[in-house]
Amino acid sequence: MSASFSRRDFFTYSGSVLAGITLGEWGRRHLARADALASGPSRLPAEWAPSVCRDCAAACGIRVRMVDGAPVKVEGNPLCPIGRGRLCASGQAGIEAYYDPDRLIGPAKRTGARGENRWTAITWDEATAILASRLSGTRATERRPLAIGMEERGPLADGWTKFWTACDARVAWTPAQTSARLRAGFLALTGIDREPLFDLEHATYVLSFGAPIAETWLSPVWAQRSFGRFRRQAGRSRGRLVQVDARRSATARKADEWLALTPEQQVVLAYGLAAIIARESRGNRQFLDRFAGNHAEFERDVVRTYLPDEVSALTGIPVVTILRLARELSATTQPLVAVAADASRELTDAVFALNALVGAYDRPGGIYAAATAPPDGIEDAAGPIEAIAAGRIRPAVLALRDGSALRRSSLVERPDAAFASADFIVSFSPYLDETSTLADLLLPAHTPIESWHAVRAAAVPPGEAIACAAPVVKPRLDTRDPAETLAHVARALGGPAAAACPWTTAEDLVIGELERVGQMRRGGAYTSAYETEWLLQLEKGGWWTSGSQTPQAFRQAVLGAGGWVDPFFQDGEIRSTLDARHGLTFSSPGAAPAIAAAALHASSSAGAQFPYRLLIFETSASRAADPNLPVLYELLGQPEGIPWQPWVEIAGETARSLGIDTGAKVKVVSPGGAMSAIVMVVHGMQPDVVALAHVPALPEGGRWAREIRSDSRQLMAAGSAAATRVRLERV
Ligand code: SF4
């Protein structure tokens, strides 16, 4: 038991909660008290402590307001270079996780059948022995353990990987929606194996292919902040945004122009614009002449294949509009072509090619290369999950770091049913949710404000950042950081696991990271925008000063500020790499019209039974998909005013043909399943497309998630959303 949570407390809580293992009404009462303290006038002195939001890979810095020893509110950390004091809705809601009534109060083992939620509280020593015994048993089997978590970078994530690798486990991650996902396309064109950094703030014109710039792009708070500056930067005219998006997203609403195209049509438009730029010799000659590479072949192919009339026929966009867009893009001083992190490889290649034609590399308002290479060997959890579902693998031990794998919109069927085939499931989730309900052993982690942090933030300008913080409050419950839990298990196992995990606590790993960073002699603790700029100028001049005399002082400065940042990255690196490797390597644009034509043909020939193409999208509120933050469910569907339920967006023509309007309830039916949704009529959408919000239905995801009873995954029996067609039925 932790110092702040006694045995007596345990029995007090356990009398009224699920089998004595969750926090229950105590959490709700104290959240109400925290809300009152945060919003009402109070004579109690408030203190602020830095921490890190862990709801997505952006790792924004937060400040937690403490009143009378209790955390009552979360705000952005003004020193954090990612958000500069801003947070998204998930970040603001983070305080709810600490008081969540479904938090587990300590380790437990299953006593009933899986999913029955019958548990017995156990000690950490017992829990350690159970997991160690299970893992030592797997060494004699062919069935490798499997460990799954949300993609994260930094020493704590490395610790997780080291432990499971030493146990001969397969380690897989639910990929974060960061620019790391665009790495392959960037590498193919430039030869640089880094994340591309999009300098949105300094662009003068942005052509966005589905990039949710005003919502959740790459690093959401950074993107929203950069978008604001792109629009209203002092001494410069307002940036123009053209959004190419299948639905009228929040970004499309804020754009100067919205073109409603499916993802396949977006590929055709991107290459169609490239063809016009090439045909009319509007490319950036200075850039292209120096880094030509295979540009001549690309230009020849794209001009021959993407005739404006054909592009117009495939996309429905008038030729005159296509010509205008190509001319606008090439005529502006600092154009940038943006793309969604989860775009197809075809679209990513087309977008990077367009950026090359307008010379948007290594210049303000363009694309730079991140300073450091991302780690190799990150396996997407979708592969092993599908392998389990198909019965191709049956892990002896399945470790679930969090619920991210179970909430993904891309999985075609409920993975919880598939996971049932694993011999033994261990969950590290802090909550009694859909992950822990499946498990045999619960090893609950602390919530973020009780945790140590050293997280490498998603790569965005101004450069490299590691969000670091000590716990804001002592753990209230009998929880443990997974790094500490695994260190105990490693010692119990001995051998390679013990050798791979020499740390004792999460703090050891964080301090080790700060020592490593300090020895690099670059960057410094988070500081004001002005001083960060000063640091950049010093580093450009070959100077480095941390402002700290000793490693201890450096550590304190970084932990006190909330992180470490190195704003320096080598602009010019892309150009020098291209010089060294004989220029650009454009991918062949050859097959794209065939893809779009096939999609359009399928769309027109699908028959009356399922006449609409299904598109599934995630919203700002559902992206983090954290079922323990009820305020996010309140925000779902805003500004449409449709909280707590999924909705489907349809064109005006479609609504008229069905005799329905905004607010009507419909059943969305596919060959594989059906679900209910509220209609939202969107004028300008393509009439053969319906766009469905993905809000994960998690019957065991906690008391808030239970309100969502069905989700888009039920429709995707055909293999993926892209291949799924639906009809709408009035309810
Ligand atoms: S962008 Fe991500 S890390 Fe930043 S506040 Fe929002 S959820 Fe948290």
Which terms would index this structure?
six-stranded mixed β-barrel; binds iron/sulfur cluster; Dimethylsulfoxide Reductase, domain 2; 731 residues; Rossmann fold; globular; alpha/beta; single chain; eight-stranded mixed beta sheet
Helical proportion, percent range: 25-40%
User: Could you please say which CATH topology of the domain at 196-369 applies here?
Assistant: Dimethylsulfoxide Reductase, domain 2
Radius of gyration based on Cα positions? 26 Å
Tell how many strands the DSSP assignment holds. Answer: 27
Give the termini distance in whole angstroms: 52 Å
Oligomer: single chain
Main-sheet strand order equals 5-4-17-16-15-6-7-14
Bound molecules: iron/sulfur cluster
Sum up the overall morphology in one term.
Answer: globular
The low-confidence runs, each spanning 5 or more residues with pLDDT under 50, are 1-17
- Counted by DSSP, the helix tally is 28
Describe the main β-sheet briefly.
8 strands, mixed
Into which percentage range does the β-strand content fall? Answer: 15-25%
CATH class descriptor name of the domain at 196-369:
Alpha Beta
Mean pLDDT: 86
Superfamily (CATH H level) name of the domain at 196-369: Dimethylsulfoxide Reductase, domain 2
Describe this structure in words.
The protein has about 725 residues and is α/β, with parallel strands linked by helices. Helices cover about 35% and strands about 15% of the residues. It is globular and about 70 Å long. The termini are far apart. The relative contact order is 0.14. Mean pLDDT is about 85; it is low at about 1-15. Iron/sulfur cluster (SF4) binds next to helix 3 and helix 8.
